[in-house]
Amino acid sequence: MRWIVVISLAAVAAIGCETVERRIAEDQLPGLVLQPADLPSFSQFGLGRQVTADAHAGPRKDSTRFGRLGGWIARFRPSNAAVRSGPLVVESRADLFPSVSAADQDLDAYNAEYETTVARSGGKKLADPAVGDESRAFTFGSGADFFYVIVWRTANSTASVLVEGSAVTLEDALALATKQAARISAANR
């Protein structure tokens, strides 16, 4: 009888300790991308749900991949049209999935997409930055058109920041990815 009680208590404790997967709700998508306040010297020229025209060729093209719930995108350029150096276009994306494992699959697809881009353009995969729960970073391009992209997963979301321009740096992309990651983390509470 004593063993039955011990086993029953252990089972109740195990059930009570089971972790509940945190999820970001789909209605939070508009707030998961960079906002105008995050880029004070930039103007926004694109904002809204991701549509077919926003899809890249490759493993993330299918808008229903891995049970995807939806995606949001925001694009920015310098407010001063005379600016010709540094970030000239910033693109911020966020996608939501039904689970962490589905978001992990999307992060793997991001990785495959950009590894292909890097291989074709002579770019390179960079060390994984400390953004979100898991992340990747890439650089590619040449001359006056250079890119840094940081992609990451937080809970059931994936996100990316792409910075394009001349004289852009990894630090430019990391600073913006960190701002966007903070927005996503706040939504995951």
Notes on the structure:
With 189 residues, this protein is of the alpha+beta class. It contains three helices and seven strands. It has helices spanning 2-17, 100-121, 170-187, and strands at 42-49, 70-78, 86-96, 124-126, 134-142, 145-154, 157-166. It has a seven-stranded antiparallel β-sheet, with helices on both faces. Strand 5 (134-142) and strand 6 (145-154) form a beta hairpin.
Short description:
This protein has 189 residues and is of the alpha+beta class. 30% of the residues lie in helices and 32% in strands.
Distance between the termini: 43 Å
Helix content: 25-40%
Q: Poorly predicted ranges (pLDDT <50, ≥5 residues)?
A: 5-18
Strand content: 25-35%
How is the quaternary structure best described?
single chain
Label the overall shape.
globular
Q: What structural class do the secondary elements suggest?
A: alpha+beta
Descriptive tags:
alpha+beta; 7 strands; globular; 189 residues
Topology:
Elements: H1 2-17, E1 42-49, E2 70-78, E3 86-96, H2 100-121, E4 124-126, E5 134-142, E6 145-154, E7 157-166, H3 170-187
